[in-house]
Amino acid sequence: MFKQKLKSLDYMFWDKVNANDTEHFRKLVSWLEDQKIRHYTIEDRAGLREISKPDWDKSFDKFILDVGCPVTTSNLDKLEWLIGLAVRLEYEDNLNKYQKVTKNKEADAAVPSIKSTNPLDNLDFESNEFKNRVNAIAKLLKVAQHPDHRVTLEACSKYVTQRLNSNALKNPSSVVIKGKPFPIIETEMGLDMGDKVLNNTAKALSLLYIQDLRNLQTGINEAIVAVQNITADPKTDTRAGRVGR
């Protein structure tokens, strides 16, 4: 059960190792410490290297404690934990190498096997032509332009969705804000940051937060109405009813 992990660690005898064999077991533990774990100094590894000595088990038990192994069952379980530790340390030592491989695999996996017919997939969203078109749309809709053209495009999308949808076009007055504008800038917000710009920014963020809460409440109300419409009009199957026992 260790072979694939040992192969990944470049252990020379990964396909021949027999953890139930005392000599193989001790050689493998010594190799893991020497080549991968390296918890001890070179001098302190002598006890693990002397695999023929009768007190080797004492050195192994001390090593297990020193590296913080939580396993208290069989030596095979402890060895499995040590191999897992070696794999983790090997990964950390070569983090950039393995991250590059992982990213390449993720990129390959993300490539669709079928060529998309959606023209949007072929657009270069960072090209000057695309940025100029976004700014032209924003100017047409009278939407303030943001330094990041993607933010500007998002604002245009919200404007079109909320103000130019089919219902709004049929009944334009439904989306026209009525009433006197709330004087948020002149209103005290309960704290002073010592800077007028920061105070005004905080007020604007407060308005956006209140808007999010109102949208959330609207969604909750719509869900409640939908559930009530279902529960208030139950479908009764009279054929399943019986009178008496």
Automatic annotation (TrEMBL):
InterPro entries in the cross-refs: RTRAF
Pfam families: RLL
The protein's name in its UniProt record: RNA transcription, translation and transport factor protein
Organism encoding this protein: Cotesia glomerata
